[in-house]
Amino acid sequence: MGEPYEDQHQCSTERMLQAEKNRGKRVIGLLKAVTIGSSILEIACSVEILESTKQIKVVGNYSNEHKAIKGIEQINPDVVFIIIDGSNSKNYNAQVSNFCGLKIAQKIKIKHPHVKIVFMAKSKEYAVEAFELGAADYLLIPVSQSRIQKTIERIMNDRENPPVNETYTIGCFKNLHFKYNDKEIKNVKWRTSKAKELFAFLMHNRNETVVRKDVIIDLLWPEEDVEKAYDKLYSAICQVRATLKNIGIDIDIVSRDHAYEILFNNVSCEVDDWEKEIKKMSVISDENIDYCLELIDQYTGDYLAEESYVWVENEQERLRVLYQAFSNEVLQYLYNSGKYTEASLLALKNQQLYPYLQDTYLMLMRIYDKQGDIHNVEKQYFKLNQMMKEEFDTLPNEEIRNWYRNWIKNIVQKI
Question: For 272-307, how does the pLDDT look when each residue is reduced to its tens digit (9 = 90+)?
Fold first, then answer.
């Protein structure tokens, strides 16, 4: 019984969509919607209540997974309403072949992450799974006009206010933060510290195809039993999505069976951009020195240093090595070029970042010597001695001691 209704509706739908394509316009002022369900009666009832709002145009109805996926590809709707109940949510295939509400939603999210998905169900039984998949809403049947109006307003607002000339960036130097048009977004609120770490871990693994759920659980909830750990994971994912939505960042976290995929869309990662740019600076010159200093300024601290996540250590060390090599090259260029003020500022920054590295003290001593600043040469040497004694119970290395002794001799000879 389901197929004739679906095919008949699709004929009119396809004619309407073709006409729309010919005009080169959307369904003006309306949300373009598709409904998916296993029961023709449920679909018909849903269409009636949706279109009674005067804000939704249902342009496709499906009771078969394969036809639904194909239809969505062609129609490109704003929103998909999936009608689920106990029989069709996970393993139902008695009336209509291959129908599975939650799995259809998962496939839609993977192929069309910007399409909103709204579940309509007779109970809250599958609400957790629905929101874990990234549902825009979960409506209980029967649906009231006032309740569905809230859903429509939310979706319409997202559609009518697309980002214009906006850039969002995830910052990872020193701590986890977000930038909007190069300005840091203040007061980002995370529901729990676990939700923040979960997002950080997903972001950290952004170059992986997917991140397995069991790996996340072993990392964040190792002491919990499996069922409770998965509940906490699903809850944390919802919290992450809520935080990202609140600050306007267009990142999709897509559930794929036993793993998650994170889609950054047009959001960039500060670390990736920075690394890409410093690798372009193969030769430091007068033409690019200002840009090199800008790149150095972007490195405000080690990768997620203030978050205290044990799993960042390898990446933290890798980026630290890149920064130190690059900054030392820039520092040497500034010194050789006689740009001692710029060189001293960079050396002081590096000393603050890495106070246990002796080379920075030596470079500052050389710079101050070139500037004839005897006081600061002595100050740096004694500062180094004090640090080495307190932290390592030893003296500065032989190269530095020899340099200082020779410097003292030269000073004495000039007097």
Answer: 999 999 999 989 999 999 999 999 999 999 999 999
CA pair distance 88, 101, nearest whole angstrom: 6
If you write DSSP's letter for every residue of 378-405 in order, what string do you get? HHHHHHHHHHHHHHHSSPPPHHHHHHHH
Return d(Cα 275, Cα 303) in angstroms, integer.
Answer: 12
C-alpha separations of 47 from 34, 35, 40, 60, 116 in Å: 9, 7, 10, 10, 17
Determine the residue type at 20. Answer: E
Specify the pTM. Answer: 0.69
Q: How far apart are CA 3 and CA 326, in angstroms?
A: 65
DSSP class of residue 244 equals H
Nearest to 164 by CA among 248, 247, 245, 240: 248
Contact between 110 and 263 (Cβ < 8 Å): no
Instruction: State whether residue 44 is helix, strand or coil.
Output: helix
Q: Kindly give the interhelix angle for 226-246 and 213-220, rounded to the nearest 10 degrees.
A: 100
- At 215, give phi and psi (nearest 5°): -65, -40
Alpha-carbon radius of gyration of the chain: 30
**Contact predicate 62/4, CB 8 Å:** no
Collapsing DSSP states into helix, strand and coil, what is residue 340?
helix
Report the alpha-carbon distance of residue 92 to residue 86 in Å, rounded.
Answer: 8
CB 50 within 8 A of CB 148: yes
